[in-house]
Amino acid sequence: MAQQVILNNTTLNVSNFKEETINQNGQDQHKLSFDFQVTHEEYHDITTLLYEQHFDIRVPENNLDFRGSICNYWTSFTNLYNTGAVGDFHLELIETVKES
C-alpha cells in the first residue's frame, strides 16, 4: 500500500490508499483515493495546492505517474486556523483522459 502520493511536487503522507482502474467512455483511467492529515501550519499551502484541481500525480511505490484531477474530496470539521489543530482530509483523484 502506498504511503506517499506526490501532487505537483508536494508529497503527502497518506493512509487508506486505494488504487483502481475504471473504464469511462471506453478508456481505462486510474482512480486513487486516500486520506491524509493537515496541520494548522500546512493548511494554507495544502488548500492552495488543492484549489489547482489538476495535478501531476506520482505514486512511486506503485510505479504510477499520470495527470489527473479531483473527482471527490471532503475534510473534517476542524478549524485549522487554530494553532495546534489537525484536520483529516479525504481525496479522490481520477486520471485525465487525453482527447483523441
Q: What number of domains?
A: 1
Output the CATH homologous superfamily.
YkvR-like
Shape: elongated
Largest sheet: 6 strands, antiparallel, barrel
Record the strand order, biggest sheet.
1-2-3-6-5-4
Number of strands: 6
Structural class: mainly beta
Helicity level: under 10%
End-to-end distance: 33 Å
Please provide the ordered H/E string of secondary-structure elements. EEEHEEE
The radius of gyration computed from the alpha-carbon positions, rounded to a whole number of angstroms, is 14 Å
Mean pLDDT over the residues: 93
Count the DSSP helices.
1
Under the CATH scheme, which class? Answer: Mainly Beta
Low confidence ranges: none
**What's the CATH topology label?**
Elongation Factor Tu (Ef-tu), domain 3
Strand content: over 45%
Protein name: DUF3219 domain-containing protein
Organism: Peribacillus deserti
InterPro entries: DUF3219 (IPR021596), YkvR-like_sf (IPR023105)
Pfam family, one: DUF3219
Helix and strand arrangement:
Layout: E1 4-7, E2 10-24, E3 27-39, H1 43-51, E4 54-59, E5 64-75, E6 86-95
Structure report:
The chain is mainly beta and 100 residues long. The protein has one domain (4-95): YkvR-like (Elongation Factor Tu (Ef-tu), domain 3), CATH 2.40.30. Helix content is 9%, strand content 60%. It has one helix and six strands. It has a six-stranded antiparallel beta barrel with strand order 1-2-3-6-5-4. The mean pLDDT is 93.
